[in-house]
Amino acid sequence: MTLLLAASALETAQNIPPATWLKLGIGIAAFIIAIVILRKVAQMNKIVLGVIVFVVVSIVFFSWIYNRNEPKWLTPVVEKIAPFFPSAGSYSNKQHKAP
Length: 99
Fold this sequence. Notes:
mainly alpha; 5 helices; flat
């Protein structure tokens, strides 16, 4: 019975497209790389880590405000903040107006 189940599992695995195996391999590699990076970050100076995290989060957040491609759950917050910052369409709108 075990041999029959092993044969059917092998046949099923052979029917999976190669693109799926590639994505699975990339996912496993990304997981391993993330673990290695997290172990290195755990040994890092916490102040330097805090500054790096702050800069990265700020860049991503301001990119969301500028391009208005934020996640849906963050839209209410960005709606209130966005008028105070430039957006991707604001420059072209100002250029079309007559002086």
